[in-house]
Model the fold of this input.
Amino acid sequence: MENSGQLLSQAERDISRRDAEILLAAAWRRSRASLLADAGEPVPADVAQRFAAARARRAAGEPVAYLLGHREFWSLEFEVTPAVLVPRPETELLVERVLARTQPQLARVADLGTGSGCVAIALAHERRDWHVTGTDASAEALAVAHRNGERLVAGRVEWLQGDWFAPLSGRRFDAIASNPPYIAADDPVLAGDGLSHEPRGALTPGGDGSSALATLINGAPDHLHAAGWLLLEHGATQAAAVRDALVARGFTHVTSHRDLAGHERITEGHWP
Done:
C-alpha cells in the first residue's frame, strides 16, 4: 500500500502538485491541510482508485472544478458541471464594478449569459433589496444556476431562458452585466488545458470573437433606464474596441478596469 507522499510524487509526472493534492484530498474526503500534515500515511485502496481515475481525467485536460463538482467564487461555493464555464477570479471584478456603479436601493439588475449564476448570485448576496435577473440560452446551464441560486440566495434571483435580450422584452434595468463569449474561433487557447472541456458556445461566438459583445452594446439601450450602466467582461486585448463601440452607440463615462493580472478586463458605459 502506497502512502500519500508517494502517490503525489507519482502524479507530478502528468499533473501539477497542487492539482494532485486537491484531487487526493477530495478522493479521501478530507482537507488538503490534513493530507499534507500526514504525508506518510498509507492510502486505502479505494481512495487510491478514485484518485487514479481523477488524475487520468485531469491529465486529459478536464478542469479540476468539473472533477470536484464545485468552485469558489465571491467566497461562495458554486456547483459547476460541463454545462457551464468554470467561474474565474477575474470575473469578480465584474461584480465589484456593478456594485460600485449601481446606486438605487431597489435596483433592477440583469446578468446576461449567466452560466453557473455566479455573477447574479454574488450580486443578490451583497444587495438583498435588489431585483436580480439571470438569463441564459442554455437550459442545462440555467438549471445549474437555479440550483446554485436556491442553495445560496433562495428565491432572490429570477431565472429566464433565452438568447441575450430575448426574454427581457419591454423590461428595463438600472444595470446590465455580462461575461459573454469573446474568444476568436481560431484562437489556439480554445484547445488548451481546461478550455477544451468547457462549453464552446460560452467561450467563442465564432469569427473574431466580437459578435456577442456587439449584440450586447447595440441592444442594451433598449433595456436600460436613463442613467443606467452596461458592464462587460472581455478579452485582455479587446478593451479599446469595446470602448469605441460603446462611445459610438451613445454611451458616456466609458471606462475600462484592470484585473489583478493587470489586463483591461471590464469595460463599462453610462446610458445618458
Summary: The longest helix spans residues 45-59. The two ends are 68 Å apart (CA to CA).
